[in-house]
Write a structure and sequence with these properties.
Layout: H1 3-14, H2 27-34, E1 37-43, E2 47-54, E3 61-64, H3 68-81, E4 84-91, H4 95-114, E5 123-130, E6 133-140, E7 146-150, H5 165-177, E8 180-187, H6 191-210
Parallel strand pairs: 3-4, 7-8
Antiparallel strand pairs: 1-2, 2-4, 5-6, 6-8
Keywords: Amino-acid biosynthesis, Histidine biosynthesis, Lyase, Signal
Protein name: Imidazoleglycerol-phosphate dehydratase-like
Organism: Sesamum indicum
């Protein structure tokens, strides 16, 4: 909350006889008071996927998808994005459907958490290096769903997880949220490093795009002045 708003509220609290107007806060300050929180539940015949995300969290992660390596990747969203991420699955946890359903639920929760997206940066871009791997992620939250995905994963499995499913995760997330997402691998032969670098870069780029710029006040960085939120 801005200092001037806080002072007015304190004056009103202790000196109620004065009807002093409280200046309006920008939308960024207003949302930050309670945190930008989104929740989604995806119900299929096989399972129930429940997701809760706090965009203004403290990197708290409670994730259980039934696959340890997928859990590890999703934890990067919390640790690198500084979001609170909760993912719970009840029912059949086959990796293919779980990966897609979690992507849909996370995309839906993110969309709800960000609301009208007024005042945010909208664009995010980050390169993450991890050992031999270097991955670039660039994204745009303007409401245009598009995924460009270029990862070359040498191994067919990491633990028991099929790395090719990661593309399905991002495709589902992109469609549910409505974001433009480009993922490019510039180096890397270690499958674990490539995938972890990808999620780290995505989390950092998303954090960058969802942060508020005080200079924007109640505007959006779009020539049309609105986002395509449908």
């Amino acid at each position: 909350m801005h200092i001037d708003c806080l002072l007015f509220l304190l004056i009103k609290m202790f000196l109620p006889q004065f009807a002093l107007p409280v200046p309006p806060m920008d939308s960024g300050s207003a949302r930050a008071l309670g945190g930008r929180i989104g929740e989604a539940e995806r119900v299929t015949r096989e399972k129930i996927v429940t997701v809760k995300i706090n965009m203004d969290g403290h990197a708290v992660a409670e994730i259980n998808t039934g696959n340890a390596f997928f859990d590890f990747l999703l934890n990067r969203l919390a640790s690198d994005g500084l979001f609170d991420v909760h993912v719970k699955i009840t029912g059949d946890c086959d990796d293919y459907h779980t990966t897609k359903d979690v992507g849909v639920a996370i995309g839906t929760a993110l969309k709800q958490a960000l609301g009208d997206r007024i005042g945010i940066n909208q664009l995010g871009c980050f390169s993450a290096a991890l050992g031999d791997a270097l991955v670039l992620v660039s994204l745009d939250l303007s409401g245009r769903p598009h995924l460009s995905y270029d990862l070359r994963i040498p191994r067919e499995t990491v633990g028991t997880y099929d790395p090719q499913l990661v593309e399905h995760f991002f495709a589902s997330l992109v469609d549910a949220f409505g974001m433009t997402l480009h993922i490019r691998q510039f180096a890397g032969r270690n499958s674990d490093h490539i995938l972890e670098a990808t999620f780290k870069a995505f989390a950092r780029a998303l954090r960058q795009a969802t942060e508020y710029d005080a200079r924007r006040h109640d505007s959006v960085p779009s020539l049309e002045g609105v986002y395509q939120l449908s």
